[in-house]
Amino acid sequence: ESKALEAYRKVEPVTSAGVRVEVAANLGSLAEIPSALEAGAMGVGLFRTEFLFMERKTLPSEDEQADVYTRLAEAFAPYPVVIRTLDIGGDKPISGVDFEHEDNPFLGWRGVRMCLERPDIFKPQLRALLRASVIGNVKVLVPMIADGSEVQEVRNLFAECQDELQQEGVAFGTFELGVMIETPAAVFLAAELARQVDFFSIGTNDLTQYVMAADRLNPKVASLNRTEHPAVLNAIASACNAATAAGIWIGVCGEAAARQDLIGFFIKNGVTELSMSPTSIPRAKRAITEL
Ligand code: PEP
Ligand code: MG
């Protein structure tokens, strides 16, 4: 079995109906690049930037971030790398940010909500992403979106950063901007959001917990925390329809992206990119070619 699977690493999978699907890697650090390339990752569909901010005493500088994002993009060129802006909250505190105690951290001050209130943290990341875009095929993904105004605020901050870089004579590039579809609000607003962004990426881990109101970390409600539940599948289909109608691409980057029993459903609904842990890639490629 493992020999037969190996052969799929280098494949760029196409379904029997002729749909090309990008199978990309979810990464949490640069150290994982070699294994992702080895497994046949067609780029990165989710680069979790949290690692840059955690387990250290000071915030990472703009230069340090620009270096990390550039090295990531270079490693996967010409494939794209989707870099997610900081997604941290009261359950995962970092030094340099005062997280007050919250009774419901998953419903609290996390992801883009925190970033928009802390431009001193967010803007160096945005500037680093703009700088890395000179060299690589970078796409920027914003987590925890629940309202169109958040997208607009992110765009405004990017414009501010571009002005500053321009004035400083620092080179920067352009990139696609996308949002995670991981809150029920984002699903219900998908038609509007699709007009504001270049792509969607469905975060099935959070989308499942929020649609089912079942904590993704609590084993007592695991029987409800199922992405294959019809309520979650309807939500996914609805976001996919909105993306298709608006002519933007849509990917899946939650754990469910690697599920053999769901890949057909995603692709039937218009998903063209699946991002997963590198070890799952060959199997997913095979499943796609067998659809
Ligand atoms: C998700 O919510 O599905 C996701 C991919 O993001 P994270 O697991 O980092 O919350
Ligand atoms: Mg998430």
Q: Can you walk me through this structure?
A:
There is one protein chain. This protein is α/β, with parallel strands linked by helices and 291 residues long. The protein is 43% helix and 13% strand. Strand 1, helix 2 and strand 2 (44-48) form a beta-alpha-beta unit. Helix 3 (62-76) packs parallel to helix 5, helix 8 (190-196) packs parallel to helix 10 (230-246) and helix 9 crosses helix 10. The model has no long low-confidence stretch (mean pLDDT 95). The chain binds phosphoenolpyruvate and magnesium ion.
Tell me roughly what share of residues is in helical segments: 40-55%
What ligands are attached or bound here? phosphoenolpyruvate, magnesium ion
Characterize the overall form.
globular
Mean pLDDT: 95
Structure in a nutshell:
The protein is of the alpha/beta class and about 290 residues long. Helices cover about 45% and strands about 15% of the residues. The longest helix has 21 residues, at about 150-170.
